[in-house]
């Protein structure tokens, strides 16, 4: 592990996601659906879905990070957004890779709050400055995190036509 960065490998992600699922199950929480925050939350949600036997997975696309420690002023919800009808009365587990500032999780949690029976958050990493304190956290760190799905540059860049 680098002194300045937290490094998550695919193997360690398997351990992390399983331990997150155990924390959710041990708490007695039985989500009706898992709402992933794209893109990093897709991996977490898929792993939790299998481990918690939840087949009902939804996705919210949020744009906030633009580079290493670079972000927009505020997170932006991109279409399509989940229908309130699909969330109505459900126990929702919001899944993401990291709670950094917490702004993205707050946006999603607040979006859900008026429609669902209960909303809780599960993340692989939570940083001390996060405005949202997640119910389920695998590890806490204040370092930049290298995730296995974003450690290498894209094979195809949208900027190079």
From TrEMBL:
Listed CDD domains: PRTases_typeI (cd06223)
Short name of one Pfam family: Pribosyltran
The keyword Ion transport is annotated on this UniProt entry: no
Name of the gene encoding the protein in the UniProt record: gpt
The name this protein goes by in its record: Xanthine phosphoribosyltransferase
Keywords: Glycosyltransferase, Transferase
EC number(s) from the headed UniProt entry: 2.4.2.22
Span of the signal peptide: none
Keyword Glycosyltransferase: yes
Annotated GO MF terms: xanthine phosphoribosyltransferase activity
Phosphoribosyltransferase domain: residues covered: 6-151
Species: Actinomadura rubteroloni
